[in-house]
Specification:
10 strands, Rossmann fold, alpha/beta
Length: 209
């Protein structure tokens, strides 16, 4: 499959890129600074551009079959519109070019997943660190749901380091559920699994251990 990755230089994005290549996908990565992407592979095309530039995104989307969105934001505690603005541009390009499949990473704290990450995350990390980021991820999720795309939104639990292969739990029935963590490697694996699956089509599972 021809897959465009948004956020390929981030911690999760690097895992998505590596695993996508291992699976034999043809990968295009839209990055602002190609020097940050040390990977070289015959199935990898690195395209210089900005996720907030409609022209760059339009060029990147053209000819692809699916998009994996895993952009990150390090400006914790500050207002941001990165996720909603970039997603609005991406959706327009995908709809223009007839690229239907979007697998997007948001995280625990978006929508009704708030309050399901365990005491430390719910009462310390979310209100003090990630709340404003997730306010924009709520806007992002609304844009995705309002699109004509075949979307899946993965709400990953709090990230940890480690290998893939953990026993994942994925659910959108959240009453009484606490899912505290997930490795970045397992996050990437779940995102890529959705490219060939309809199990979570137009759904937003919370995923982790």
């Amino acid at each position: 499959m021809r897959v465009l990755i948004f956020g390929a230089t981030g911690a999760v994005g690097r895992e998505v890129l590596a695993q996508a290549l291992e699976l034999g996908h043809g990968v295009r990565a839209l990055v602002r600074d190609p020097a940050k992407l040390a990977v070289r592979h015959p199935n990898l095309e690195v395209m210089t551009g900005d996720a907030l530039s409609p022209g760059d995104v339009d060029r990147a989307v053209q000819g692809q079959e699916a998009v994996v969105y895993c952009l990150g934001e390090r400006a914790y505690g500050k207002e941001t519109t990165l996720f909603s603005d970039s997603t609005r541009i991406l959706i327009a390009a995908m709809e223009k070019h007839g690229v239907k499949r979007l697998v997007a990473l948001t995280g625990i704290g978006a929508g009704d997943s708030k309050g399901h990450g365990g005491w430390i995350y719910d009462w310390i990390v979310y209100p003090l660190i990630t709340k404003r980021i997730y306010q924009d991820k709520d806007r992002q999720e609304d844009l995705i749901r309002g699109s004509s795309l075949d979307w899946t939104i993965m709400r990953a639990a709090a990230f940890t380091d480690g290998p893939k292969g953990g026993k994942l739990r994925a659910t959108d029935e959240l009453e009484g559920v606490t899912i505290a963590s997930i490795t970045r490697a397992d996050t990437a694996a779940f995102l890529l699994e959705q490219l060939g699956s309809k199990q979570w089509l137009r759904r937003s599972p919370l995923v982790g251990y």
